[in-house]
Amino acid sequence: MASTTDVKNFKLNHTMIRVKDPKESVKFYNHLGLSLLKKLSFPDAKFDLYFLGYDAPGAVSHGKNLWDREGLIELTHNYGTENDPEYKINNGNVEPYRGFGHTCISVDNIQAACQRIEDAGYKFQKKLTDGKMRHIAFALDPDGYWVEIIGQKPVEETEGVRETDLGTYRMNHTMIRVKDAERSLEFYREVMGMKLFRTHEAKEAGFNLYFLGYEGEQGAVVEGGDTAKREGLLELTWNYGTEKEEGFSYHDGNKGPQGFGHICVSVDSLEKACERFEGLGVSWKKRLTDGRMKNVAFVLDPDGYWIEIVQNERFADKANF
């Protein structure tokens, strides 16, 4: 294991969401081109974890160990929910439980990709032809989570194209809403070590979007440059004025009703990274020494979202699980 820690080795490994029926959820994400990379079962605690990601030969993380990847989705299934008619997921987009917004895949030919999803019988929150923004769509997974679909090419260029190659798809980003953009940007840049790749200001609509990530093997991005072909980005959505509202807060997904669970960063040295976080005065949900699981920690961001910290196997003597 590395004797020191360097944020240049950090990766935004995965986003965890809870699901009602794993068979239906895995089927949906398989249809989007993601492969089931690993399943972890914890029968004593009555839950399973499913890790999915893009693994075609051209994928950014192809062939790498689980914790050495970026842009994975972790599905958490608590036994019995699939047979409980009262069990429903909070997708993060309904008041008063807004917080987590969506995951996002980028595709080669967006019109063909959306048509393929529709042909399979899946529903949309927003089709390409809905509203003013004709360059993005939002599909709905079996639990009602939003999956944004963006193109890797200009939408005009792919008009009329009828084919789409799943091997070119990327798990591009995860979006969460933040109360105070300055506080969150400082946290993710100074504490978590991310770079700000792109800012989108929608002044007339009253919000800004900030896209952050780790340069890593994918390399640097010229600020404001195209990020559509990257994996493992974090999108922060800030609605103007929320930072001034006393008592305002977003739902972290872990209080009832539950849905989104956490994002996860893999690090070169779990112990040293946690020492660094401690030195920076972070708030903890779980320190390494807390509880039975001594191989994971959870940091809290300024809005109370959970950030899991795990060991990247590439820098370790043994696997995490």
From TrEMBL:
EC number: 4.4.1.5
Domain of life from the UniProt record: Eukaryota
Cofactor(s) demanded: Zn(2+)
InterPro entries for the chain: Glyas_Bleomycin-R_OHBP_Dase (IPR029068), Glyas_Fos-R_dOase_dom (IPR004360), Glyoxalase_1 (IPR004361), Glyoxalase_1_CS (IPR018146), VOC_core (IPR037523)
Domain VOC, chain residue ranges per copy: 11-152, 170-312
PROSITE patterns listed in its UniProt record: GLYOXALASE_I_1, VOC
Metabolic or biological pathway: Secondary metabolite metabolism; methylglyoxal degradation; (R)-lactate from methylglyoxal: step 1/2
GO function term, MF aspect, one: lyase activity
One Pfam family of this chain: Glyoxalase
Keywords: Lyase, Metal-binding, Zinc
Recorded family membership: Belongs to the glyoxalase I family.
Protein name (database record): lactoylglutathione lyase
Species of provenance: Podospora comata
